[in-house]
Amino acid sequence: MERTFSIIKPNAVAAGHTGKIIDSILERGFRIVAMRMVYMSRNTAAKFYAVHYGKEFYGRLLDFMSSGASVVMLLEREDAVNELRMLAGHTDPAQAEEGTLRRHFGESVTRNGIHAADGVENARREAALFFTEDDIMDAGYFPS
Ligand code: CMP
User: Which residue's CA is minimally distant from atom 15 of ligand 1?
Assistant: First the structure.
């Protein structure tokens, strides 16, 4: 099993797409092992996107991510990172394939509906900004 980290971004939450996006993620075979609705501070957004510091879109991205509620999730399945990136689709919704979340729920490259971590190590770093060990449900927490 692998874990990845995802954010349903403020545009998708505000538009009422949270449930549909979570449904798609579950249908793809993910288990949600931690989830929370957050109103991200600009400071947390800056830490989260530190790798993009200095890029032309950095300020715009921070403004947007701290503009309203979003939903942060830690997700688990085999090949989780790749599977979620495929489900999310191209970063630019205009270039995202039919059937992907960004195609349906994205409005622009910044307001692209969902974030999907690009690797296991980044997923771990990103999740640590929002979850403690106590927030994470291991397999034993799900009665079969
Ligand atoms: P996300 O998956 O959250 O990871 C980084 C984000 O930066 C990305 O989605 C986009 O929202 C944003 N981003 C990446 N490249 C650009 C760009 N060229 N212009 C504007 N925003 C970008």
Answer: 109
Q: Is this prediction's pTM over 0.90?
A: yes
Mutate which of 5, 63, 73, 112 for ligand 1? The one with the most ligand atoms within 8 Å of its CB, which is 112
**Which residue among 53, 57, 90 is best mutated to probe the pocket of ligand 1, counting the most ligand atoms within 8 A of its Cβ?**
57
The string over 68-91, giving b where at least 16 C-beta atoms fall within 10 Å of a residue's C-beta and e elsewhere, is eebbbbbbbbeebbebbbebbbbe
In a domain, 129, yes or no: yes
Mean pLDDT, contiguous 10-residue spans, the chain (144 residues) = 98 98 98 98 97 96 98 98 98 98 98 98 97 89 70
Range of the domain at 11: 2-135
Number of domains forming the structure of the chain? 1
- What does each C-alpha distance from 64 to 11, 42, 140 come to in angstroms? 9, 9, 37
CATH of residue 105's domain is 3.30.70.141
Q: Is residue 143 part of a domain?
A: no
